[in-house]
Request: fold
Amino acid sequence: MESLLVITNSEAGTSDQQSLDAALGVLHGTMSVEVAATSNPGELDGVLHRAGSRRIVVAGGDGSLHAVVSVLHRRNELKDKVLGLIPLGTGNDFARHMEIPLDPQEAARVLVTGHIRTVDLIVDELGAVVVNNVHVGAGAQASRRGHRWKKRLGPIGVGKVNLGKLGYPIGALQAAFLPPALRLRVEVDGRVINDFDQPVLMVAVGNGTSVGGGAELTPEADAEDGVVDIMISRATGPLAKFAYVARLSRGTHHERDDVIYLRGREVSVSGEEFFASADGELYGPERTRTWRVEPGAYSMILP
Reply:
C-alpha cells in the first residue's frame, strides 16, 4: 500500500477542512495517509525531515506548494521526492496549468490513478525557487500596493469578514492607472533582448502559464519542456497600456508588436530599482536578478 504524507495549513478555514476531509475520504482504504498541519517554516521543515520515502501531498494553493518545494530544494532532497497536489488555494494557477482537477475529490483520485512525471523548476542566483511564475513591473506593483491596502483595511471588520479582501483589487486598479515604466536590461541566455533605452511595462518569466487565478502572462509556457517562457511588454504609452491589458485578459497580449515573447534557460534583469512577485511572494527593491531553469527538478503525480 502506497504511503502518503499530506501537508496542510493549520490555519486553514472550515471550508478548506471540509474539502480536505472529502479528498481524504477518497484516499482512505487505498493508501496509508498521515496528515500534518503546519503554520510556519520551522514546523514545515520538521515535518519534511521525517517524510522518509513517502510521497508528499500538498493540500493548499500555489504558495503552499512553493513553500514545500523551497524547503526540499534547500535540503537537497527535492530530486528524490514525489509530490502531489490537492488544490485548496485561491488562485491554484499551477494546478490549473498541470491539469490537476480543482475539485479536491477529483484531485485526490489523480493521486491514486495518476502518472509520475518530472517537472521543471526556476531557481535564482540566491537559491530561491519559483514553481510557477515570477514577474517584474506592473503586476508586482499591483501586488505591492494591494498588500499595503490589505494591511490598512484588514482591521476593519470582524474576523474573515473585513475590508482587507479589497486590498488587491484596489492595488490592481492603482497599478492600471499609474503603472511603472522601468528602464531595465533583459538578457536571455547571455543575449540582450531589451536595453535601458527601451522602457518596459513588465517582464514575466513563466514555468506555468497564469497568475492571479487565471491571468495568462506566459500563455505558451510548459513546465515540462526544459525552458522558461519570457514575456517583455513595452506597452508604456497611455493607450498602449489599456490595449495591452485588454489583450492580457484574453491571453493574446503576447501577439502584440510591442511585446517580445521567447524561450530560454536563463534570464537576467537589471537596471533601476524594481519589485518582483514570485509565486505570489513579493520581494525587493532589487537592482539585478537572474533566474535559470532546472529541467526535471522534481516529480509530481499528474493526470
Notes: Residues 154 and 160 are 9 Å apart (CA to CA).
